[in-house]
Amino acid sequence: MRDIMGSLLRVGVLAAAFLVVLGGVLFFIQHPKEVFDYTTFKGEPAKFRQVHLIVKEAFNFRGRDVIQLGLLVLIATPVARVIFSLIGFLIEKDWIYVAITAIVLIILSVSLFSNYLTF
Amino acid sequence: MMATFIAILFAGALFAGFVGSLTGLGGGVIIVPLLTIGFGVDIRYAIGTSLISVIATSSGAASAYVKEGILNIRVGMFLEIATTLGAIAGAAIAFFAPTHAIAVIFGFVLLYTAVVSFIKRKSDTESEILPEKKPGPMIGLLKARGTYPTANGLKNYTLQHLGGGFIVMSVAGILSGLLGIGSGALKVIAMDSIMKIPFKVSTSTSNFMIGVTAAASAGIYLNRGYIDPVLSMPVMVGVLIGSLVGAKFLLRARTKSIRLVFAIVITLLAFEMIFNGLAKNI
What we know:
The complex is a heterodimer. Chain A is 71% helix and 0% strand. By secondary structure, chain A is mainly alpha-helical.
C-alpha cells in the first residue's frame, strides 16, 4: 500500500508537470506576442475555474487550457492519495480511520467543487 | 515582454525551490514576496500560484518519505481534518480581508519563519525520555502511537496533548489557506513539541500533510479564479526542478550557512511586505 501511495504521488506530479510544460509550449506557439497584466485582480473565466470545464476545454489543445488541466491534476494528486488511504483502511477494516479519512475526503470535495455550491 | 517575464519568474521559482528544499522550509515563503514585491502581481494571484508550487514540492518529496516508512499515516490523516478545515477557513478569510492586511500578516509570519529557521533544531539523540503518562481514551481509540527506527532498534512513542496539537494544526491550516504557504514549521512544532512525536517522524509526516492541506485551499482558489495558468506554469516547473536539485545537493551542502543566508533574506522580505502592506501598496 505504501509503495502504491508513493508511486501515485510521483505519477501525479509527473503527469501534471508534463501537461503544464506541454501547455506552456503550446501557449508560446499560439501567443508569441501577447502581454497579460496581473497587477489588478480580474478573476479567471469560468473555463479556468470549474472542474468539468477545465477537463472539457483541455481537449481543444489551447496552451492555457492544457496548463490548467495540468494544475487540476496536481491539485487532485493529494486527493487521490486520500482516496487510496480510504481503500487501505477499508481493507484493514479499521472503521475509525475509515470514518476519519472519509471526513477529510468530504472536506476536500467541498473545496474542489465549491463552485457548484451556492454560497 | 511576456517571454522575459516568464523567464525571470522561472529563474526565481528555481531559486525558491532550491533554497526551500535545502532549508526544509519550502518555496512558498519566497514565491509570494517575489510575485507581489518583485512583479506587482495582486497578492491573491500570488497566493494561488504559491499553493500550486507547495502541492508540487510536497507531493514530490512525500513520495520518497512514504517509502522510507517513518511517517505516521494514521496520525497524519487525523490531523488533516484540522488542517483542511483550517485551510478552507483561511481561503475564505483571504477573500474578505483587504489585500494590504494579508501582506502585513504574511510579513509577520515570514519574520517568525526566520526566527524558527535560526534556532538550532534538536536531533533525535537529544530528545529526552519522556515521563510515561497514562494515555487517555482518545489516544487508544485513535491508535495514536507508533514505532520508528533508531540506531538501537525500533523505539515506541505515544502521542500526548491531542487536543492542543489539533488546535495548532488548525492554525497551521488557516495560515496555509490565507497565505499560500505550506506552514511546515508550525506543523512540525505541533507534532514535535506539543504532541511529542519524534522529530524525524514529525518532519516526514508534516511534509506528507502539506500537500493535502494546500489542495484544500487550492480548490477554493481555483474555483474563485485566482489560479492563473500563465503565472503558475513557470512557477510550478521552476520550484519542482529547484527542489529536486536541492534535495540532491542537501547531502553535501553546509546547511548552517545556507540557513543563515535564508534567514537574512526572509527577514528582509518580511519587512518589505510589512512596510508595503502598511503603506497600502499591496
